[in-house]
Design brief:
With 501 residues, the chain is α/β, with parallel strands linked by helices. It is built from 17 helices and 17 strands. The protein folds into three domains: 1-234, Alpha-Beta Complex (Lambda Exonuclease, Chain A), CATH 3.90.320; 236-301; 320-459, no CATH class.
Length: 501
């Protein structure tokens, strides 16, 4: 989004950003009109994602070359979009097989697709007349809404340039699949979003924005304005600082004149709101109250959550602290660390590089439960480490049949399952290893069916309430006396960023 010759120029990313967060669009408009300088965005996760995207785009380009298709590279470092758009249109008229990094410029709309490919090369039933379709390279293994919207935007522009709307657009996914999508299925929606964006931008630029608010959304993980928005929410004591509160609950409270966390916490009685459960709102109020009390006390406070009961007053089984099994001398505590950008072949992304387990039945020289770490630095190491950790758990169960393997949140058992069968299901992670290597399937299945794994995150969320803004393990460290020797760095955003590939 920028001002060119006094007019606002819209790119595909601006359309996608508008859907993701209208406050982001307001901030970008203000920056385009030079009312504020956009913050410098230096994020390790975003950089790693960009580098991976460039490599994936290169691999897609090479795959087109191996098919014998001729490539015309259009984009230069001059950023003269009008000249490059004319060059792209000329290449289309010449009938080039593949136009790499072409430029589409129609009125005040700019498109920079990765590839424009002659449609008859993708579908031999089409005639020889040069008509093109858009192919955009995306790392994700499935089509994401943002990618589809951007590609539909490109297709609309290309249809105007070549005088014929393409029938299909394509996503070259990280799985190496070329996914065709019918343009007509998405064109009306893409046009509507463009119209809405145009009307929104016509209201003018302002800073700070008065008609939008930085509500936390998924896109925050990769947004350059993230720090400024976080600071504004904290300065405003915004409701989003309450752990676990939903967007619907926040909206109901703000519509009823309760915009702050402290204001909500101070209510003596939680009022009823339309289309919001009183029970869940009462839980959010208790969370807000405890967070405010913890701030005043300048220490982490906690309390038990009243256990759930059925209509007869009996305790609901497997909820909260009732889900904790009896302790066993052989209990294990398990964690996995992964590098989601790792790839050896450009097809399989992600490497589980450390399987860590604490064995309460064995002790080190200092008398503490012994820690075992199984490291991997490539795919072969990963398979070996996966087999070792499964064999370790199975062997310990033979000695202690009633042991459980405790973990925090669902990542660990999900990872093991798919490591044992990934070639069938690629969407999850203990499972992802089982599938990737087709090994230890029976052992993993037996552990999962036997409910050996116990998710402590679920138990904590259902069993206690703490004065924290999130129930991540790091935030809860003071509860169990953990003293961190090395601070975690900001690159923990890597995991979040991957969802936008």
């Amino acid at each position: 989004m920028r001002i060119v010759d006094g007019r606002l120029r819209i790119a595909a990313s601006d359309v996608a950003n508008f859907i993701a967060c209208r406050h982001l669009t307001r901030l970008n408009l203000a920056a385009a009109h030079q009312l504020v300088s956009a913050p410098f965005f230096d994020d390790l996760g975003a950089k790693a994602l960009a580098d991976r995207g460039i490599e994936h785009e290169r691999q897609v380009l090479e795959s087109f070359r191996t098919r014998g298709w001729t490539i015309e590279h259009q984009r230069t470092s001059e950023r003269d979009w009008r000249r490059e758009a004319d060059a792209t249109a000329a290449a289309m008229r010449r009938g080039a097989d593949v136009i790499y990094q072409g430029t589409l410029l129609v009125d005040d709309h700019l498109g920079l697709p990765d590839f424009l490919i002659r449609a008859d090369l993708l579908d031999s039933s089409l005639g020889p007349e040069p008509r093109y379709e858009v192919v955009d390279a995306k790392l994700a293994r499935s089509a994401k809404a943002r990618a589809v919207l951007q590609t539909a935007f490109y297709s609309e522009l290309m249809g105007q340039v070549q005088g014929h709307m393409p029938e299909h657009m394509h996503l070259a996914l990280g799985s190496q699949d070329l996914l065709p999508l019918r343009v007509a299925d998405y064109a009306a929606y893409a046009r509507q979003v463009r119209r809405l964006l145009g009307a929104f931008a016509a209201d003018g630029a302002q800073f700070p924005p008065t008609d939008t608010y930085p509500e936390p959304v998924e896109h925050c993980a990769v947004c350059r304005w993230r720090g400024a928005c976080q600071q504004q929410r904290r300065d405003d004591d915004d409701l989003s600082l309450i752990a676990g509160i939903t967007a619907r609950q926040r909206k109901a409270l703000k519509q009823n004149g309760i915009p702050t966390r402290r204001g909500f916490a101070a209510l003596e009685e939680v009022p009823r709101f339309d289309r919001v459960s009183r029970q869940t709102m009462t839980k959010a109020h208790a969370q807000a109250r405890l967070q405010v009390e913890g701030e005043h006390a300048k220490r982490l406070l906690w309390e038990f959550v009243e256990p759930e009961r059925d209509k007869e007053g009996a305790l609901t089984p497997n909820r909260g602290l009732t889900a904790l099994p009896p302790p066993s001398r052989g209990d294990l505590f398990f964690d996995i660390e992964g590098a989601r950008y790792y790839s050896e072949d450009g097809k399989e992304y992600g490497l589980q590089y450390l399987f860590g387990i604490v064995d309460t039945a064995d002790h080190d020289d200092d008398g503490r439960p012994r820690y075992h770490g199984f490291w991997s630095f490539d795919r072969r190491d990963e398979k070996r480490a996966f087999e070792q950790i499964i064999d370790f758990i199975v062997e310990r169960r033979q000695r202690h049949p009633d042991l459980h393997v405790y973990h925090y949140n669902h990542y660990e058992p999900t990872a093991l399952y798919h490591l044992a069968e990934l070639h069938q299901t690629r969407e999850e992670v203990i499972g992802r290893l089982m599938g990737r290597f087709a090994t230890r399937e029976e052992e993993v299945d037996h552990l999962l069916r036997g409910r050996v794994f116990v998710d402590l995150y679920r138990i904590v969320r259902q069993g206690i309430r703490a004065s924290v803004e999130s129930y991540s393990l790091k935030r809860l460290e003071p509860l169990f006396g953990f003293e961190r020797q090395v601070e975690l760095q900001g690159h923990c955003q890597l995991e979040v960023v991957w969802t936008f590939c």
